[in-house]
Specification:
The chain is an alpha+beta fold. Helix content is about 30%, strand content about 25%. The protein has one helix and five strands; from the N terminus they run H-E-E-E-E-E. The radius of gyration is 30 Å and the shape is elongated. The N and C termini lie far apart (about 105 Å).
Length: about 120
């Protein structure tokens, strides 16, 4: 029937229950790969996302920031928690609005706003 097949080999009998060590050894490489992936990729990425979120929440007027597009500017409006946009001054009298999430890094923190003194 098949001219290239000279001998047929039958498979051995299926393993019976009780060979749990062998089954665990089959899954050990998969578990090991997942653990390495978690510690080398997922955990640092989660930590970086957490730090970026904290930086965005701490954003205030006067902070110098870089956007993800590489634009450096100073925050000129008061930043509130629910506000999706921030106005940056990138040059004297030149202001742009960018999404808060697109701010990549803070260059330096500005001076804290001081309340006006009343006499």
């Amino acid at each position: 029937m098949f001219p290239f097949v000279r001998e047929a080999f039958a498979m051995g009998p299926a393993p019976q229950g009780g060979d749990t060590v062998g089954m665990l050894m089959q899954f050990a490489p998969i578990v090991l790969i997942f653990a390495i992936f978690y510690f080398l990729v997922l955990r640092p990425q989660q930590r970086k996302a957490k730090l970026h979120g904290e930086m965005l929440r701490a954003l205030k007027k006067g902070d110098e920031v870089y956007t993800d597009g590489g634009i450096r500017g100073t925050v000129v409006n008061r930043v509130e928690e629910g506000q999706p946009e921030v106005t940056l001054e990138i040059s004297p009298k030149v202001q742009i609005r960018v999404l808060r999430a697109r701010i990549g890094d803070m260059v330096k923190a500005g001076k804290a706003e001081e309340p006006a003194k009343q006499s």
